[in-house]
Amino acid sequence: MHKITRTDTASPVVGVSNVHKSFGALKVLDGVSFDVNRGEVLVLIGRSGSGKSTALRCIDRFETIDSGEIVVCGHRVSGPKLDLRALRQDVGIVFQSYNLFPHLTIEENITLAPCSVKGISKVQAKEQARRVLAQVGLEDKLHQYPEQLSGGQQQRAAIARSLAMQPKVMLFDEVTSALDPELTGEVLKVIEALAADGMTMVMVTHEMGFARGIANRVVFMHRGKIHETGPAAILTSPATPELAQFVGTGL
Ligand code: ADP
Ligand code: MG
């Protein structure tokens, strides 16, 4: 897998600095910092409950933070004057499930936001829908409803829907976790192609082999902190017993 290594001196696409976040008495993010530069793939790993989804949701302002700073594509996400609409145009997010509107065709799912949020014409939006569906290998599913597609195809359509907004960064939160194993590969292949194409992304995944192949940087979360971080090689030679245990090499 080709990894993009750019020495980009511009400010990072995603900058997370010393972020703290609690839910009541539960500290979920305890001084988390990381940067993602243009064209980079950052993979977040860690046990269930370690704060991975919360970290992603803070980037897209689905959660607010208690302290620290998050800047995404020049938007001060943690600031009081955030233009939420502008942020959401720049950031695409795909979750584990429940991504598509069940009562709309795939085409309608994909053209909805570009028409209503970006104000582009129906004709243009439909053209774009064809293009992004081709990108995920689903050009023949335009007029089908989500329930007529397999889980893997639905996730690919959800990715296509995000791409139609022409995001500058994509966030993926365990997008293959709800899928049968035989459907996982087709979704990962789409993400791999996006990465090879230079898309900046932050991804939470339990697919360690995939993470090893795609990550420019791996962040291992443990008890709300970044316990270990480094290039993909840390997955095969972890420095801490916690990461070793997590990846199952038993240090
Ligand atoms: P991960 O994605 O690593 O499994 P999460 O970020 O989803 O972890 O959750 C971290 C912790 O925060 C968990 O203990 C979870 O139960 C808790 N949590 C997440 N969201 C909320 C919320 N909205 N309200 C209260 N607790 C939450
Ligand atoms: Mg999660």
UniProtKB/TrEMBL annotation:
PROSITE patterns (alphabetical): ABC_TRANSPORTER_1, ABC_TRANSPORTER_2
Q: Name one GO molecular function term.
A: ATP binding
Record localization: Cell membrane
Has the keyword Cell membrane been applied to this entry?
A: yes
ABC transporter domain: residues covered = 14-248
Task: Write down the superkingdom of origin.
Answer: Bacteria
Main site of residence?
membrane
Q: Which CDD domains match?
A: ABC_HisP_GlnQ
Cited InterPro entries? AAA+_ATPase, ABC_ATPase_HisP-typ, ABC_transporter-like_ATP-bd, ABC_transporter-like_CS, MetN_ABC_transporter-like, P-loop_NTPase
Which keywords does UniProt give here? Amino-acid transport, ATP-binding, Cell membrane, Membrane, Nucleotide-binding, Transport
Which Pfam family would be a valid example here?
Answer: ABC_tran
**GO annotation, cellular component aspect:** plasma membrane
Gene3D superfamilies the UniProt entry points to:
P-loop containing nucleotide triphosphate hydrolases (3.40.50.300)
What family does the database annotate? Answer: Belongs to the ABC transporter superfamily.
Query: What name does UniProt use for this protein?
Result: Amino acid ABC transporter ATP-binding protein
